[in-house]
Amino acid sequence: MSLLRKLLEKEKARELQDQDFGPLRQIKDRWEGQSLSLWGVSGIQILIDAGDDGPSVEQREFFRTLREQRPDIRGRVEEAVSARAAETTTVRPIALRLSSLDIPRIQPHFTWRIWYDIQGEEHYWYGAEITDWDQIVPFTED
Question: Quick check: is 10 in a domain?
Answer without folding.
Answer: no
